[in-house]
Each structure stands twice: as structure tokens, then as C-alpha cells.
Amino acid sequence: MLLAGCSNPLEGAANNLLESGIEKAVEGTSGAEVDLNFDGSGASLPKDWPSDIAVPDGTIMMSISQDGGQVVQISVKGPEALDEMTANLEGAGFSETDSGDLSIMSLLIFERDDLAATASLIDLDGEYVLQVSISPNTN
User: Fold this and answer.
1) Cα(69)–Cα(114) distance, rounded to whole angstroms?
2) Which residue has the higher pLDDT, 102 or 3?
3) Relative to the CA of 117, which of 20, 50, 129, 134 has its CA 20 to 30 Å away?
4) Whether the Cβ atoms of residue 14 and residue 41 lie closer than 8 Å to each other
């Protein structure tokens, strides 16, 4: 009965093993740096994330870095996170070049001389995920 109100340590261990196994499998086959978050504790930004690009507050669910590009998914509080990300990118010298709006997702595309970026906000029935991708600009 004492353990009924506590979190299950086996579930936490299983999540950690699953995260670690998936991360190692992807890293081993693709050469990408991967950080996943299944247990709610949060992943981290890729080590090579551009230092001049801030991200909104939230829990990082996943990050990937490969071939000079990075992707991060962040669980955020609401749609204002996309506005904040836009301001952060513009503050780092990016200009918006295109946008799209689907029923559950808004997408913005940015670029500056050296980098291209996309920022998308996905609305999953009131739960919001911000995905930001940074890559070398080939234009």
C-alpha cells in the first residue's frame, strides 16, 4: 500500500533503457546525435545548436543533430511559443520567407545568409509541440 502512491521505479528504468537503446541505434546507423525524452525529465538542445538562437521555455522532448543541421521538439504551454520563436529567429538575423497553416499545424520558414530554419507549432487538442529545424542555407 505504501508503494501505491509512488511512481513505479521499473517503469522509469524501462523508459531509460528504451531511450538509451533508441538513441544508440539511431546514432550507430545514421551518425546523428540523438537525445530523447520519454519520462518527462527533458532532453537537451544539441551540443552544436547555434548559440544565437534561443528557444521558448518548455520541455525538450527530442533533439537530433546531423550533418550541420539540428532538430528540436519542445512541449510548450501554448500557441504564443511560435510567436516567441519567430521573434528569437528574427533577433538572430533571420527573415521569414514563407508560411503555411493547416488545421493542426502552423509552419514558418526563415533564412539568413548561413542558415535556414523552420518553426512549426502542432496543436494536439490543446497540447502544443513546437518543432524547430536549423540547417545550412544552400541558397
Assistant:
1) 12
2) 102
3) 20
4) no
